[in-house]
Automatic annotation (TrEMBL):
This is Large ribosomal subunit protein uL3c. GO terms for cellular component: chloroplast envelope; ribonucleoprotein complex; ribosome. It comes from the Eukaryota. One of its GO terms (biological process) is translation. InterPro entries: Ribosomal_uL3 (IPR000597), Ribosomal_uL3_bac/org-type (IPR019927), Ribosomal_uL3_CS (IPR019926), Transl_B-barrel_sf (IPR009000).
Amino acid sequence: MSISHTSLLHLPPSVNPTSKPSNSSPILFSFHLKTPPNPALLTSKASSFMRPLTLARNPIKKSHRPICPKISNSVEAGIGIMGTKLGMMSFFEEDGTVVPVTVVGFREGNIVTQVKTESTDGYNAVQVGYRRVRDKKLTKPEMGHLEKSGIIPMRHLQEFRLVDVGEFEVKQKLELEELFSEGDLVDVSGTTIGKGFQGGIKRWNFKRGLMTHGSKSHRALGSIGAGTTPGRVYKGKKMPGRMGGTKRKIRKLKIMKIDNDLRIVMIKGALPGKPGNLLRIAPAKIVGKNIPKS
């Protein structure tokens, strides 16, 4: 159903050269709309012939704009500690089963250097220091941060975000046997071994070409895309580049043995990095146990 709408416009004398100012009369024209017009959006301007109708803008109110919810950072399942990777060995269980384990040692450290709360820093976290070093190994801002709390110089400082930090205080010593026990599952983070610049075969396990029968493509990458369409290389294309040297977390590893006399812990499986690298050990996040399913 169409609705007829009539508008009245006054034409200036300059539009028609034969017309006279005294004989100028308004012109009526009609147009059909499928829906009735909104009187608040239609305004008529008689001073200009080129703009007979103007649409008035309807500004969007701030209350109607979608508000993005605040994204909260992930929280650890519990306080953790830092250690040093020593190497790998074989561990024999009571039934004779051989289990490959990684030995992690602990130097002087694992001391609480700062407690952050929502009132002071906007979130709850515990900062832990590890591995004592000489004063000249740290910068003046780092020394000032530790001297403020009266703590010895520490090489590594890391935070553990927790739900509640009420039971922690500055200068508190974190002991391995008090936090973990044999059979617990932990998440271990570290930096992988750097391999440098590598080709596609070693970096992405690509297949090589024939080495005989006249083949001239042995370990080359090959085609990296189509021609004119799309005329570019897609993002994320697997190509030669720098391999390793990135942060990696291995989840749900079992603690096989804790030796308090040697100050070492044996964790089942391989851990990232080479011997001497820093490792971060924290309780494993398990959905339904220490993390809600929702």
